[in-house]
Amino acid sequence: MFRNHRRQYPSCASRVSYCARSPVGVELQKIPIVQRKPSSPKNRRNSCLKDAIIHINPAFRQLIQFIDMKNRPHSQRHPVIRLTICAVSLFCLLVPISASAQAVTECIVNAAQVARVGAASRGVLARFEVGRADTVRAGDVMAELEASQEDSEVRLARLRLSSDIAVRLARRKAETAEANAARLTTLLQNNLVPKSEQENALLEARTARLEEEEAVLQQKIAAEQLEAALAARERKRIRAPFDGVVTDKLMSVGELYNEQEPVVVVARIDPLHVEAYLPAARRAGISLGDTIDVVLESGARVQAVIDVIDPVLDAATGTFGIRLRLSNPEGRFLAGQSCVLHFE
Question: pLDDT for 183-217, tens place per residue?
């Protein structure tokens, strides 16, 4: 009977539990309760390997928890899990683990600036000057709205500014009036004209000079009107705010732009910004200007310089953010890809 129960309940815990409920428990009480054995060197070595894997990359923690089968007999492990354990163990043997191993942190590469650009006034989109993935310089015209009225106002203001007929006419009238006033003043000294006539001549001379000043003022007003017309015309243009590349066009020619939606998306990709979050324990080991190795998703290994360190710690995660500047003058590195930081 003892042997039958032992075959039916192969595990120690099952035999002890069954002993309390079995009607033949008197016989089964003779079965010794197996105590947990002290950790063997093999188990301690496996534990060290798991800790080393987690140290290399914390993302392996869930994998270790999933494949941790040390409490199950080896025969009950799934073949795939046994193969995974062997592969991870082999990886640990190939990778040297020491106290001086590099710390690895995940990061992401972003464009330094992203602008969703529109016009300063509403209107119908007339044309695009750029396409997707085109390189632009700061101030380049990327698109224009319909602006026939503004163009007419600009031409009219230029005509007014270019004509100085009113100023020349007023100046001649003033010179003539002053000469007439001087002649009448000479005649009055000889008592040849009445004084009232001489006074009227002086008044006409002063009035002519004021008319000349009015003509000069109108010339200045025409210059300001030209500036206003040019500004109104400029509001119909969509210019690049900085050097970069066009990443998207959000409208089509002929659509009505209402000042609420952008038309073109521009990204500045030189330099690139590498964003990462570090645990608070690493704050003392970094400073502004440090050079860090960055392994990009594309496989390239580059160096970036720390230019921003957040002064406030995130209490929820216990981390702080850093930003690194990655030079990209030729546009070889793509924004938006993931990366890994390697700290020595």
Answer: 988 888 888 889 889 899 999 999 999 999 999 99
Question: How far does Cα 6 stand from its chain's mean position?
Answer: 68
Contacts of 320 (CB under 8 A, 6+ apart): 277, 278, 280, 283, 309, 310, 312, 313, 314
The residue ranges of every structural domain in the chain are: 106-112+269-343, 149-221
Beta bridge partners of 103: 343
Indicate the burial class of 192 (C-beta count within 10 angstroms; 0-12, 13-18, 19 or more). Answer: exposed
What is the rounded CA–CA span in Å between residue 5 and residue 12? 11
Q: What is the pLDDT of residues 85-138, one digit of tens each?
A: 555 555 544 444 443 345 688 999 999 999 999 999 999 999 999 999 999 999
Q: Is 86 exposed, middle or buried (0-12, 13-18, 19+ CB in 10 A)?
A: exposed
- Indicate the DSSP class of residue 211: H
- Helix segments in 125-194, DSSP class H: 148-162, 165-189
**Residue 19 tokens, joined:** 């002993």
Q: Homologous superfamily of 106-112+269-343 in CATH?
A: Efflux pump adaptor protein, beta barrel domain (2.40.30.170)
What average pLDDT does range 27-33 have in this prediction? Answer: 43
User: Contact, 61 vs 54, CB < 8 A?
Assistant: yes
